[in-house]
């Protein structure tokens, strides 16, 4: 087994690696949904008329953005359990990734909402819409479609960044590759194949996002 | 208290509105009778539009009381005192008023039909079928029966403004505000919008408050013309008097300046 590249070895670990990929995809999608929802709530909170809510949220967002995701993962996974908050690694990691990216998506929402013409708010008021109906029926349906490409970029970024969850024992693609390598003392094939799998998903996804960007830019 | 038919539908009592250092309404007293058509004219920056915006609750006055259909707009009664209005009260009184904007402000993600049905369905809770039937009638009335499924981006400026008028009418306001509704239109599209407003004026039942630069039109549809300058009513009266024989020097200077163009 001294060849540079061993295909038989690759074939033997691929099923396992694909299981890791499935976990990576699951983490990415659940975390993205969290980021999309949390980001929207943060954006609305920062637009809140209550300065206390807006400022506290602003501080929280700056804090999350100014510290590495890896440190946040360690804090959630190793420190919170000491205070009785014990959750499986998958859940801790997914929430941390989602909230981390939520602080970035909130900026997209905020910019998208700011881009809505003042006249739309005034028309909604003149027609006596309730605040909730103004948001749900008038503002968000106009604000969200142009945000889709930017949100798509974060989806692709989160897919790659989810590798950091390996540091807190989430058995996703990267940790699976490392485990396979450790067991057989050969790291070249598992990590190369993991890289290929990341690429096969991220690259076409970026192309889709680019097309969306062009479509909305053309409008 | 229910308003009797002779009470004004709109009354400004001592209303002041400032933006920072700039006072745009100075202790304004101003009434509009039910079904009355009033045009406000005056130099730009004189506060004409602010009158409409304060009445539509888009701007909050600094002082004074505005009455709409016998009820205070920005206040509510607590015993015999007036206290600042709750959001609920504001929405209730605001329901008497409709507004058509200079820049249309149609909802771009909705068809012409849905622009007109959206508020009746969600605000007045009219059943969808009834709201659509009435919207079709209103769009017919403004000459757009063939544009029901068109989005605002597919309509000309004049057509957009007519949809906006239908949309405001669908809420059955007692007072309709027209804020320079032809100023953003190409000259050849002004006529179609003015025709619609003229028809509404002829129907008579709704009070109308117009800010416009179309003096000929103002003369034709108004019961009363108000010349407004520096936050105050300078002169008011029937259109023949204000346009034909203004008394105040500032009014005269304004019309002279306009007629020279």
Characterise the protein shown here.
The longest helix of chain A is centred in the N-terminal third of the chain and has 40 residues, at 7-46. Helix content of chain A is 78%, strand content 0%. In chain A, α1 runs antiparallel to α8 and α8 runs antiparallel to α9 (188-217). Chain A contains nine helices and no strands. With 219 residues, chain A is mostly helical. Chain B is of the alpha/beta class. In chain B, a hairpin with a 2-residue loop joins β1 and β2. In chain B, α3 packs across α4 and α3 runs parallel beside α5 (157-169). The chains are: A mainly alpha (219), B alpha/beta (261). Chain A binds chain B through residues 117, 119-120, 122-123, 125-130, 133, 137-138, 141-142, and chain B through 56-58, 91, 94-95, 97-99, 101, 103-109, 118-119, 122-123, 167-168, 171.
Tell me how many strands of chain B there are. Answer: 12
Which percent range fits the helix content of chain B?
A: 25-40%
Element string of chain A (H = helix, E = strand): HHHHHHHHH
Q: What gyration radius of chain B follows from the Cα positions, in whole Å?
A: 19 Å
Count, helices of chain B: 9
What's the average pLDDT of chain B?
A: 92
Q: How many strands, which pairing sense, and closed or not: the largest β-sheet of chain A?
A: none
